[in-house]
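Question thread 4412

I'm putting together a teaching handout and wanted feedback from people who do this every day. The idea is simple: show students a protein as raw sequence, then show them the structure tokens that encode its fold, then repeat with a second protein so they can compare. Below is the first pair exactly as I plan to print it.
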Amino acid sequence: MFEEPATKKAKLDPTTMTEKDIISDYINKIKNSKSNLQAVLSDELSHTIETTKVYIASIKDKRNISKAIQVLNEKLPLNELSHLKRVRKNTILLCQSSTVNTSTIEEYIDSKLPELKDVFELFSEIDVPSQAPKLKRQYTEAMKMWSCNFHPDIYLEKLSGDHFFPEDELNLHRTFMAIAFEAAGWYLKSTVKEITGDLLQAVNSSVVVDPSINSVVAVSFDNRLRHPVQHTAMMAIDDVARTQDGGAWTRKTTCNDSELSGIDMDLLEHLRIKFPDTKFGAKKFTSKEENIENGEKENTGPYLCTNYYIYLLKEPCFMCSMALIHARVKRVFFCFENSEFGALKSKAKLHTVQSLNHHYEVFTGFL
């Protein structure tokens, strides 16, 4: 049930606060936050642009620029640096430094490109961007080194900025994260005598939301003391499966309504009192067999967490992060970083691995 304490902690004094105060303090800080959420992006977007060394030279006579480019593109193509322009004013990019296998660049050009002998002068070696810029700030940085191609991505620019979510949507995200805190407190009260700030950050709870109807589909908590695989995200996926006539693990619930079967009924009653304006329940699920009977060709219901959002108190581990990929979650939100096992920011950024067949967006910065 319990994970190692997170490294990032809000300033709370458990010696002077009751368990109700601790939960309320976190929720109030989240709801009253003035900052936007931050997307966790791949290193190639968040880090300084990487460079590689190339040789350049000036053209003695500008009338030879077209000929020089034609010969260079044919005999010394910039295969790995195709994002770079060959010419910058009267200077030409000759080749990557790593391809030169002679003592000097002049000797290399004379041997490889005899038709361009005596065309160049003022040879030098410089650093250039090794990859195409993906953000405007990277493009600005790259252009200081060498001219390059750039195709702006409006969505990516917004995602990397500080104002991605409008205020009304931010309020929804804050409310769903507040529900995760309230759920953690509700579960903890049944297992421990006193809730402290450290304890709250050592556990994990999750809330799954269908953003198409802004409704809470599942609310889950860790059960790893009794089952090593039942981390909160794994429990959440199984709870979502229960709303789709599936699920592998049994729960203590009296709910016979499949649309609400992802939430413990006692907890649901508690949350409805605490969050009267929040909608709970999944869309009515129809199986493939039912659709065929009704003349439909395909299953109209979602596959597990397809297009769903999940809100977690703590950054998930590798197992849970990969499970959320397989479950086809659209967005993952977390509050506390997991310095020991976090797979979405602290130890890795699993969601940015290009070879995976599904990718979700990750956001943090609630506190």
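The second pair follows. I'd like the answer to focus on this one:
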Amino acid sequence: MMRRCLLLLSCIPLLSGCWDRREINDVAFVIATALDKEGDKYRSTVQIPLPGQMGGVGSGGGGGGTSGSKTWYLESATGRTIRESNAKQQKAISRRLYFAHRRVVMIGEDLAKDGMEQMVDLFGRAPQNRLTSFPVIAKGRAAELLQVEAPTEMFPAEMVRELISNSSEEPTTLKDMVSEMLTEGIDPALPVVTKRNTDPGAKGDSQSTVGVSGMAVFNDQNKLAGMLNDKEAQAVLFALNRARATEISIFPKKGKHGVALQVQETSIRIDPVTSGKQVKVHIHGKVRALIVENDTKMGMANMDNLQKLQNLLNRTLEKQVIQGVAALQKAGSDAMGIGRSIHADNPKLWQSIHHEWPKLYPKVPVSVSLDSEIEHGGTLVTPLGIQKEEQEK
């Protein structure tokens, strides 16, 4: 019995218990980080929710705060490294910073132009940093975007996260970005967020908020190469089968009357065509679309009208994709992974050209051919309000 007691007592020092526990009211949950470059230093700004200001139904302040106070707090500091700036922030906050619940990482335009390597090393090295966060590029200073109003959400960070989730079928995460940075033949591309003002009308008060505005593309040095506008960014996502609910207006005849269509499904391939060291790219595939508005007199029960519309949709989409690829080539960014396609299709050729690919890529000829199918026009086949005898045959 004595031996058993001694054995049990000797096990007590090995039991961990709760010696490293951390009470929730001692933790500051970081939900977003904004990173900027200021001279030769880095500025890090964190957004922290304030549970005490998150009132229930009937409280003021647009979703939280019993007296209209903000439901979040910002802390900012500069340092020679990003980690050093985080350490300075910790000295100014009474609670322990906790980054595992971070949802968004905003990267300022100047920092993106300078390069992304140091930022990526920090996020990949610390276990708290989840690689499922959404990285975005801020047009201008990233810190300013964490200070805007979020009329439909409790925090600006949550609004940005929802905007990014709705902008693409497969939003880019930190893990995806790192993978593209380390993979030959493809360059990273991230959504661009900008500060904008709401337009409530002549008698309403305008508010500052955020919106997604195009795509930031990087070169093979992982530096910001340029920014695509909304139309070009949507065309690139469309060619990659990542666009969500793309809507396009086409005009069968010259004038104001047109047809609005929503792309429901795409199946598009990027195929390299090689001959010796000569490379061409052919983008082709099928598109299924739905009529969401018909402002013309064309009745879709007429198969000739439907075929004309499908041909016009093909030409319009093909032109937009060509423009999107041209914008990427002009910026010198292979965000569509054309080099990666060559590597997969012809590894020997890629080994012989991959060192000079940044110079070859902007001159690669690209052709596009699409086959669109418009299945139906909702519950209406003919334009509503147009008499049968007025419909165009």
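Top answer:
Good format. For the second protein you could add a caption like this: The first helix runs from residue 2 to 11. The chain has a mean pLDDT of 85.
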